[in-house]
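Form 7-S
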Amino acid sequence: MTTINQTKYSKDLANKKLFVEREFDAPVAKVWRAWTESSLLDQWWAPLPWKTETKKMDFREGGRWLYAMLGPEGERHWCFMNFDKIVPQKNYSGKDGFCDEKGNINKDFPVMYWDTEFIDQGATTLVKVQVRFDSVEDLNKIVEMGFQEGFAAAHGNLDEVLSSQN
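Output:
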């Protein structure tokens, strides 16, 4: 019998933070790879029917992931993640946001500061994401844009990717 894991959200408006927790039915090494290798990220990061396409991935401290979210009508929204700190199979943090195809930040959208933690639970992995914003308004704007629904849907995609790998 397969358990359906749920993505859980909570907010700390006083500190302008959004918290995300999700358990995955795979060991930490496998989950880490899925969150840090572009060939795997491209398979799950966008909620269907959207897709993710990496232009460049340099997963190291000081590196950057530049990618596009491709919509079913041909829409293309560019995004980036600048990696600040990486502790393999434990944690990574960085600055995330929308940009143009060259990576120039789109100031019409909020910037987010991600801290992503991977907790080894043997056969499963708990991923805890803390997203900090510059203002409560920025946090609310991202939530209103459908962040929670989209990220939960992407996690469902990740479940499929993880179950299809050896």
